Amino acid sequence: MVDVGDKAVTARTATASGRIVTRPDVITLVRADDLPKADVLATARIAGISGAKKTSELIPLCHQLALTSVTVDFDFTDDSILITATAKTTGQTGVEMEALTAVAIAGLTLHDMIKAVDATATMTDVRLETKTGGKRGNWTRDTPEGDSVASPRPGTAAVVVASTAGAAGEREDTTGPAIRAWFEARGYWVDAVSVVADADIAVEIARVVATSPAVIITTGGTGMSPTDRTPEATSALLDRELPGVSEAIRARGLAVTPRAALSRGVAGTASGTVIVNLPGSPGGVKDGLAVLDDLLDHLVAQVEGGGAHE
Q1: pLDDT digits (tens, 9 = 90+) for 139-166
Q2: Which residues are within 8 A (CB) of 114 and not within 5 positions of it... i.e. 6 or more apart?
Q3: Which residues form the catalytic set?
């Protein structure tokens, strides 16, 4: 076992993913929880979390870790179930194996649940997507081998839109361009506006964080639809939360519609990058940007080490 006694204690996270490929009719049965073995997703989620906690017993020479959080989530395509697991700890070694084990055990459990109706189901593409913390900093699958994420680049921003219909070209997105224009009016250079399916939001936010913009604003995926996963994807990466910001955005929306109370958007910082979730509606984006008008510059200055502390 590698001696990690001299390593610094840091907050560490890792996200892994994998897929179960099966028939469309089986996907329908899983989503309706109508298989012979009931509570399919709940059982697979518990199995994945339990697997993460037992990683040191399953994988030789893995360190025992005091996990502070393990989440396992599922999204669907027509013929597959995407499994995403995020593990967190504060310690002297990473949690990549815990995240990968969670995906593998959850996938095996799903296979056990559906084999009675599809013996040919396949578990595939189990892989690490992103990790944070430690000497090498942050890493994402798109980062060249051995590279780490630098400190946030002052004056830069990125926009991530969670919209399955938009990513498929079935609906024109107007929220991303509106946020880009808002950033540019304030002197920010916008790296890109990316539009991704809800199922891909966790991987996309992690990828964008790894490019180190000063600010990321997301839009969409903050409600209670089964595919709305933007808050979970964001929370998995945050090292500090900003609950007051998300509460102010909801309060602004409540002045217009009671449905604003249903938004689960979060805000915080990930390795110095400010991330704010906004709702997916044009009105919700307008209200959120109105709140950020008075906060963003001061917030970014504080994160960068300047500005008054209140």
Answers
A1: 777 655 545 555 788 899 999 999 999 9
A2: 20, 22, 26, 29, 30, 35, 40, 121
A3: 112
